[in-house]
Amino acid sequence: MSKILVTGGTGYIGSHTVVELHNSGYTPVIVDNLSNSNIQILNQIEKIIGVRPEFHQFDLCDEAQTKTFVQENPDITGIIHFAASKAVGESVEKPLKYYHNNFFSLINLLNAYQGKPINFVFSSSCTVYGEPDTLPVTESAPVKKAASPYGNTKQIAEEILEEVAAAYGNYNTIALRYFNPVGAHASALIGELPLGVPQNLLPFITQTAIGKREKLTVFGGDYDTPDGSCIRDYIHVVDLAKAHVAAIRLLEKGNPNGKYDVFNVGTGNGYSVLEAIAAFEKASGQKLNYVVGPRRDGDIIRVWGDVTKSTEQLGWKAELGIDEMMASAWAWERYLQENPIG
Ligand code: UD1
């Protein structure tokens, strides 16, 4: 069984990917500093897959610890690198935190693997496209100037990977550009666990519906879209997790496109904020308290992905639709109400 290092493996997307790796016959090994996740997630993963994944708590920004870990775990053949800071607003206030965390961890990991063959999957974002000129947006669309330090770390990290893969022979890399991950595992045992007030739409919706927040504000109702609210390509986190397994598989068999490649990971469908709310109300049977308010600075008006390349070359396609996304997110919120974590 190939051992795959999952950095940030107790986080939202990381935990779902650990489950899917296990289900596909891989042995996931988690490294996480728990800065934005909870150790109880390990118990939750164990409840789903029946075994407790190997877990190491340290910060990948620590070069010596990262090197030691790599030396002591020579049987790791692949890495899925999630561990990073990801709050857009915070990155504008604390850019140095973002450049420090997101680059030092990446560079320490790459350095520690110098000279060793390694498959490397990187967590990137559709944020690299900015406001796309054409839709659906393809992987060959131009990368626009980043709207935040967070977005800039994703763009620069992609460049680092491309250059590193070209310069040395041992790194086989794929960057996955996620659209908007939502939803939770069908067991409702893992899901998104935001610290404090959620910044993203779905946890804000579910927390409002359960009574933790008074009301949701729709950021802008006067955009040039059919109903005036922004449009996104929401992707079920379990589908997204499976895309990582597909990326590891492609790297293992040898990617004909070369040592660096990028793939969109979305459904190819766009939903407006108001459509997402309607889908949530339908799936949950709950009426959501919301108001349409002012626009949020820096929001993209509309973005959804062209998934032809992922379908044809990654051999992956999203299977779950908006109803499953909403129903699973709601089941997770209700589970958390009965079984608080953290
Ligand atoms: C945001 C980031 C993106 C990042 C992603 C990580 C920005 C501009 N973009 O994506 O770079 O990769 O998070 O998860 O921050 N909305 C509301 N009310 C709310 C919250 C959100 O109306 O309380 C709307 C937003 O205006 C947007 C949609 O819901 O239209 C989705 O928002 P969000 O979940 O924050 O994701 P993005 O902004 O797409």
Automatic annotation (TrEMBL):
EC number: 5.1.3.2
Class of the enzyme per the UniProt entry, highest EC level: isomerase
Keyword entries, A-Z: Carbohydrate metabolism, Isomerase, NAD
Entries under CDD domains matching the protein: UDP_G4E_1_SDR_e (cd05247)
Single Gene Ontology MF annotation: UDP-glucose 4-epimerase activity
The keyword Ligase belongs to this UniProt entry's keyword annotation: no
Keyword Isomerase listed: yes
Pathway: Carbohydrate metabolism; galactose metabolism
Signal peptide per UniProt: none
Named cofactor requirement(s): NAD(+)
Catalyzed reactions: UDP-alpha-D-glucose = UDP-alpha-D-galactose
InterPro entries given in the database record: NAD(P)-bd_dom (IPR016040), NAD(P)-bd_dom_sf (IPR036291), UDP_G4E (IPR005886)
Self-association state and partner proteins as the record states: Homodimer.
Family, similarity comment: Belongs to the NAD(P)-dependent epimerase/dehydratase family.
NCBIfam families cross-referenced by the UniProt entry: galE
Protein name (database record): UDP-glucose 4-epimerase
Organism of derivation: Sphingobacterium arenae
